[in-house]
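[09:14] KT: can someone run the structure on this one? pasting the chain below
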Amino acid sequence: MKTPPNQTEFESAVEKRNYNPGKLPKRINTVTAAVLAGLLESKELTGMDSVFSMSTTRLAAYIHTLSDKYDWEIERKDKCIGTNDGRTAWIAQYWLPVETISLALDAGARVWIDDVKDACARRRLKPAQGSLWSES
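[09:31] RB: done, structure tokens below
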């Protein structure tokens, strides 16, 4: 895992940054909770990460929900990457500042993270529910 870049290098008013952790979602068997749990475990997430680990293509929507509804200050940067066919593409990468993670863990978030991981593991054991196509 790469270390997030030093975000304070070119910022003014660094002392005004908000490192206070937001609220933890009550429902733990959701993609929103899984995204936050990943961020709290110091993961840097991209859209492709969410496709393979959370089965969603809507990472930005969950980041917005965590920021807007649950008050998390999530860092982001746009990053240029090379593609398999020789093109370049811009992607967004999201993470939580180390200070925010530390405060959240000090406030008891480790138990919540473990509960989220357990709930997601139990959900994966169940067969897919419903289908767009019914057999007639």
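[09:33] KT: thanks! The beta strands are 45-46, 75-82, 88-95.
[09:34] RB: yep, looked fine to me
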